[in-house]
Amino acid sequence: MPVEIKSPKEIEAMRVVCRLAAETLLEVGDKLRTGMTTADIDRIVHEHTLSQGARPAPLHYKGFPRSVCTSVNEIVCHGIPDATVLRNGDIVNVDVTHVYEGFHGDTSATFYIGTPSADARHVTEVARRALDLGIAEVREGARLGDIGAAIQEYVEGEGCSVVRDFVGHGIGRKFHDAPQVKHYGKRGTGERLRAGMTFTIEPMVNLGGWEVDVDTGDKWTVRTGDGKLSAQFEHTLLVTRTGVEILTARSRALRGSENVAALFVA
Length: 266
Ligand code: MF3
Ligand code: CO
Ligand code: CO
Description:
The chain is of the alpha+beta class. Helix content is 27%, strand content 24%. It has helices at 8-31, 38-51, 118-136, 144-157, and strands at residues 55-56, 69-72, 75-77, 91-100, 103-112, 161-162, 168-170, 177-181, 198-201, 204-206, 212-214, 222-224, 230-232, 235-239, 244-246.
């Protein structure tokens, strides 16, 4: 499938929806508290999205029942908000996707609930840095494999692993479009990036092995095969002539996720 090149008008529409998604993630960070349920996160995201005049893309997407994915601890992705209470030491990835005027914006972050264990901090900070290193590869003429290799080399060097079964994706009028953006691979391989492409990078990083299982009951929830922690961060990106524009960039640090390391120093 050919990868779409967005027109200047489409790029402007992507900027708008991605900014809204980023603002909703900031709102989640401001409201998250120990003792809340993942259903509370769903309500915050749902209401904030509608207040912007946007729509939550996950709701009813291929039968997904809620407005956001909430993935706690060993849940890798696609966790369904429910009565699960967030407890001190948990980590939770909140994955927000908006639709606005026909275009999608997709972004996620992992948040600390209370004080994280050393393991929880490690897997979360490795996932964040993995996304940053992937983004740093993006420019016209680079290859998709350059992104995957940069992420894989770093994550494995930190003693963690990269999930293989789920990948980043082209995004625009479609939620999930070509190309597939693997978070592992070889430099100098894969499709060449061209200015005007929009896609996500969203590495899922496991503290243990990369194998995952999909819940046989709800058919959505993805867990680590070994029950160890998993963390993820996601941005929607635009390839430009000179490099990359992070369409879901935030206007300030994300409360409960970014710039919190200092709080935990003994
Ligand atoms: N937001 C996820 C992604 O990054 C996809 C969620 S699909 C859903 O691609 F149906 F679970 F919402
Ligand atoms: Co995505
Ligand atoms: Co997402």
